[in-house]
Amino acid sequence: MITADIIIEKLQSFAAKDAPPRGDHDLNPGMQTGKDLTPAAVLVPLVIRGGGLTTLFTQRTEHLLHHAGQISFPGGHVDPGDDSPEDTALRETEEEVGLARAHITTIGRLNQYVTRTGFAITPVVALVSPPFDVTPDADEVDEVFEVPLDFLLDPANHQRHRREFKGQIREFYAMPYEDYYIWGATAGMLVNLYEVLRD
Question: Which of 112, 120, 119, 7 has its CA nearest to residue 55?
């Protein structure tokens, strides 16, 4: 079972600022993402539970313009008033999930993640200390749930799926858990977390 102390130590030795971007192109060489990427940030919330760390996710509502119905980390576009990716991730987490900053301690970043849809996302890893309340924004979030981190870090659960998109076959990571289908950029960031912690 991986502990918070191990994760902090690994992230401190990982220079995310100098690391090459990861992204949808990892499994799809030659994929074009466009030149004008929209900066964004997400929080990778690791919740300190008695039985081990869990990871908090949101299930997005079906009517959203981007990634409707998908499972994601809380996060979104960088606003002009945000001082850093950490500020963006914390602000978006408060807005989407209602999780107060007082419960969150950021501990590092993963590689920037570039998506086919034109986003350059900075994943900010954080520890979340219970007890805390969540009050999801009903316009953006259908559900907030947690998955054991040990499950997500087990390479046996890192599946590679494929789907046709605009006449081309695209590969992506997926980590189905119970009734939840974690895939795409979110699963790709989790694979990146696994690789950082493994090294």
Answer: 7
Torsion of CA 143, 147, 153, 156, to 10 degrees: -100
Tens-digit pLDDT profile for residues 139-155: 889 999 999 999 999 99
What is the spatial distance between Cα 101 and Cα 113, in angstroms, rounded to a whole number? Answer: 24
Q: Please provide the average confidence, as pLDDT, over all residues in the chain.
A: 91
Do 144 and 57 touch, CB atoms closer than 8 A? yes
pLDDT digits (tens, 9 = 90+) for 71-117: 999 999 999 999 999 999 999 999 999 999 999 999 999 999 999 88
Interatomic CA distance for residues 108 and 127, integer angstroms = 10
How far apart CA 148 and CA 195 sit, in angstroms, is: 17
In tens, the pLDDT along 36-50 reads 899 999 999 999 999
User: Per CATH, is 4-198 categorized as 3.20.20.370?
Assistant: no
Please spell the DSSP secondary structure of 31-54, one letter per residue: ----S-PEEEEEEEEEE--TTS-E
Cis peptide before 148 (omega within 30 of 0): no
Question: Do 16 and 109 form a contact (C-beta atoms < 8 A)?
Answer: yes
The three-class DSSP label of residue 99 is: coil
